[in-house]
Amino acid sequence: PGLALYEYVGIVTSIGILAGSIGINVAHELIHKPSWWEKLLGRALLASVCYGHWADEHLYGHHKLVSTPFDPATSRLGESFYTFWCRTVWGTWTSALDMERRRLRNVAFPERVLRDRVFLSCLSSLAVAACFGILLGPYGVLFFFLQSPVAFTMLEAVNYIEHYGLQRELVEGAPSMKELEKRKKLGDYGYVASAFESVTPFHSWNAGETVTNYFLLKLQRHSDHHAHGHRRYQVLRSFLASPQLPTGYAGCMVLATIPPLWFAIMDQRVKRVKSRIEYIKETGVNVFSDEFDVLARKEGSVEAALRKMNEGKTK
């Protein structure tokens, strides 16, 4: 009451952006931690944006199936952000429901309902909405349910950027895609993940921009995060050999909203990264060791460091 429509829209959008870029980012850091109270705080933050179901799917789905066709949170080469948004929002929700259905298949009602994490996350979000209603009335409830999709859209924009076009290769003798799809439906994520090469820093995009790195708790050092999920953000490492974005997450999120511009910049970058990965694999050099990274930074590029090492071997 008393606010013009554009003012209300501005408040909802700005709070949603803050909740997505700061709130969900902190929640992401917390749910990865081993202590129960940190995980609980992370889930509480996710409940404040109606996205509590994302926690388990992210931990036990995304981190196992990242950069494979079976991960709803990995964007595909040539897929626009808008197409990805529809696929990942629905895919994450249904994946979380399937996880809980399998986990609680032998638990009887009503205990099953009381232990269902998806149900509890929805209940938690309704409790937050009720608090808004008590404190601010109907407009408060409307505000809560409008800022939530803005917030989780920020999250999914980051997901879109983080793995765009980067795919793990199938290992030799891997089962058919039909068999892998069947195993995924059964919840055998370990089996599906083992059909692909191991997750390495090659399967995530990174950005070294200082401001957004500190603003986002070094989430842009995403390769090291996937290699060491429990590692706290303060000690995440950045390797020159990791795929590098053209700008920080903030700039890339703007680019992602304009698909032709995003494709024009990123598709060629994906091709160059794939060529580099093939070349590095042929050399057999561990480009993610601290020693190599120091050399690469000294020489100015990964390729220059590899040439330097090759020259040393031929002498």
Characteristic key phrases:
about 325 residues; mainly alpha; about 0% strand
Description:
With 315 residues, the chain is mainly alpha-helical. It is 66% helix and 0% strand. Helix 3 packs across helix 4. The model has no long low-confidence stretch (mean pLDDT 92).
Topology (elements, then pairings):
Layout: H1 5-31, H2 36-47, H3 54-65, H4 81-103, H5 111-115, H6 117-136, H7 138-162, H8 177-185, H9 189-194, H10 210-215, H11 222-227, H12 249-256, H13 259-283, H14 290-299, H15 302-314
Helix pairs in contact: 1-2, 1-7, 2-6, 3-4, 4-7, 6-7, 7-12, 14-15
Structural class: mainly alpha
* Beta fraction: under 5%
Shape from CA axes?
globular
Spans of 5+ residues with little confidence (pLDDT < 50)? none
Tell me, rounded to a whole number, the average pLDDT. Answer: 92
Rg estimate, integer Å:
21 Å
Order of helices and strands: HHHHHHHHHHHHHHH
Query: Major beta sheet, specifics?
Result: none
> Helicity range of the residues?
55-70%
Indicate the multimeric state. single chain
Span between termini: 78 Å
Number of helices: 15
Number of DSSP strand runs:
0
Summary, kept brief:
The chain is mainly α.
